[in-house]
Amino acid sequence: MAALPEDGARLSSDQAEARLAAIGFADPRGALAHIAAMTAGVSRRASIQRALLPIMLQWFSEGADPDQGLLAFRRLSDDLGDAHWYLRMLRDSTAAAARLTRVLAGSRYVVNLVERIPEAAAWLEDGDELRPRAAKGLQEEVAAVVARHGSIDAAASAIRALRRREVLRLALGGILGLITIEELGRGLADVTSATIRGALALARRGDELPLEFAVIAMGRYGGEELGFGSDADVMYVYRASGELDAQTAQRRAERIVADLNRLTEDVRLPLDLDAELRPEGRNGSIVRSLESYRGYYARWSQTWEAQALLRASGVAGDAGLIEDFERLAESLRYPQELPAEAEREIKRIKARVESERLPRGADPSRHLKLGRGSLSDVEWLVQLLQLQHAGAVPALRTTSTLDALDAAVEAGLLDGEDAARMRAAWLLASRVRSAMTLWTAKTADVLPTDRRALEGIARLLEFAPGSASDLEELYLAVTRRARAVFDRLFYGLDEQPRPTAR
């Protein structure tokens, strides 16, 4: 055997444990117990696993967490029992078995989902099954679920299960290098939108009030740039016919929002519909009529709210209402000219975000979202260019950060080398942020200093074993170069002092 010799049965327990420890198992005694349990007896499954485990143990040992991988494999085999397709796949598809060891030894996030959806292991035989599903197909499946279930709660449960399944598909494809970070962002946004559409259909089942309602994606969700563990930033809008009084309409709209949150809530794979980008933030109404938005923006709109609208995109609800909201948004987010005071205000807000929102004690050079040269720097620079020039440059009228970056270069607003440095930082920070969630099954925004955690993240990003320091050095170098571009182009540090937070 690669991990244990073919006469391993004649080894003493101590010798076998020593062999397992030598190839990287932290708990060789536990690993030996798993091996014994999986190979005991005369069943077809035990026979196949006896033949497979030598090479699979070697594959597990090459992963970041061999012990996790082996335990997850044992549980998966127990769950699937003697399923014909599973045993055939293990026996006949070396590629699928290798993929299985890679994802189980590399991602706690995937392990947690596979334990709930063991049949997903069948996808590992076919690379096409690990690609993001088309948005239309997802929406049609969700619509069929809604139509099939008479019970709202049963339908919502089925939609949540569908979401978990599709997020697992994206996680597997991402880990195995079959989809890019851009495809991942779009895929997660499509799954989120299909989930919200289904929940909205359920929330409105039997609703005969003459009320239009829509969900507007904001932030990275609106830009189709979600990562694993990302919140879904949203705003809610409604429009009532003249026969419905304002108070009744507002109450019904608030009830729809509450139902959306209830129906999408999932303790197994949380989906946080975050409405903090709405007018007045946490102090504002959770949902407004279109006319209320129109009146607010006409009288009270602040620069940061126009900036937030740059990534507003309708994703669920009445199409006519979405179109009218987006038309309203365009009048604010694509001004013909950005006043000098508005530009100064944007820079003051960014300086304040850097000084106040960074968690206490966090190293600014390691914060993936708010740190120097991180996601925030790239997005704020791009959004400033959009506010300044999208009124005259239609190609800048996009919710996508990278598409807007490309458009700025094409329009001669940004040097190609500067744009390349910003793109590299945005892509790397996005990949690292998702990899951190895949490794730990927890959401975090700070590049860890713990070497084992860094190693796990690096391996997910396809670094060679022992590359924790290489990942760290690469991230710090890439973001340092991006920050130099940001300071020069956003704050104009080669021309005048940086604005101070106030």
Automatic annotation (TrEMBL):
GO terms for biological process: regulation of glutamine family amino acid metabolic process. It holds the Pfam family GlnE. One of its GO terms (molecular function) is [glutamate-ammonia-ligase] adenylyltransferase activity. It comes from the Bacteria. Keywords: ATP-binding, Magnesium, Multifunctional enzyme, Nucleotide-binding, Nucleotidyltransferase, Transferase. Residues 98-327 form the Glutamate-ammonia ligase adenylyltransferase repeated domain. Residues 350-489 form the PII-uridylyltransferase/Glutamine-synthetase adenylyltransferase domain. This is Glutamine-synthetase adenylyltransferase.
